[in-house]
Amino acid sequence: MPNEQxxxxxxxxxCDEERExxxxxxxxxxxxxxxxxxxxxxxxxxxxxxxxxxxxxxAPLNAINGFAExxxxxxxxxxxxQQKKFVARIIQGGQHLLQxxxxxxxxxxxxxxxxxxxxxxxxVGRAAEQAVMVGQGLAxxxxxxVEPPGAQEPQMALADERRVKQVLLNLISNAAKYSHEASxxxxxxxxxxxxxxxxxxxxxxxxxxxxxxxxxxxFVRTKSATTQAEGAGLGLPLSRKxxxxxxxxxxxxxxxxxxxxxxxxxxxxxxxxxxAGTAIGDRELSTHA
Length: 289
Ligand SMILES: Nc1ncnc2c1ncn2[C@@H]1O[C@H](COP(=O)(O)OP(=O)(O)OP(=O)(O)O)[C@@H](O)[C@H]1O
Ligand SMILES: [Mg+2]
Hints:
The protein is α+β, with helices and mostly antiparallel strands. The chain is 52% helix and 14% strand. Bound molecules: adenosine-5'-triphosphate (ATP) and magnesium ion.
């Protein structure tokens, strides 16, 4: 039978143990907080380093590209057909590297919240037509169509037109890179669940279900892509960040061997005369990341 003294001792021991556990927990929380702080600082430093280094690379790259193009100019002297081929390779490689550098700068800026959207009502069909025209160059005259042709009602989104075209061009260039040379690429603009929806479809090899989410992560490329075409794996993650900044979503519908449809959505622009915020409901459209 425990006496009064032993009960008191037990209570004291329990209290002491509880206090020790609490202290240990507090120390662990403080350790974890310090670690998280260090990690996010390291991540910020990585972003700043990448952005600065890419920025420094842009000037010499522009010089390489510019002077390579001048070599093609006969007013500076004729070059042999063989040399012309080499110059074309320099220009191609230089432009590819410039695109990569620009993507790295954009991603670093987005992560640091230093990209501002210039949001206004955008006629998405028209923006798509313009992106398609640029895309034709990438797709080497393959049929790239905007559907529905001459749409009855223009689809107006509240968006940054330059960024919308950038996303579209990323998707069109992927469709051109990863699908068969003669197959068509289709761009469609429509409405879905109160959002403007833009899609780019190809008849290429498609994407396996287990890869469909991964490819939106930085530097992720599928095995077959690495043998098919050059790329860094930055186009889709950059596009996703830009679309999300608008309050939209991006995704892909695909099955192996059956082509892919990449789609993204944008908030609908309010009818002329209404305040910009009302078209996107309670969700406030952020103008920077
Ligand atoms: N239309 C498509 N058909 C098949 N696979 C695709 C398609 N679009 C993207 N992918 C896959 O998704 C990966 C990631 O695409 P993403 O655009 O991010 O990078 P990339 O095209 O490889 O390089 P970058 O865009 O940086 O030049 C590609 O490497 C490819 O494996
Ligand atoms: Mg790409």
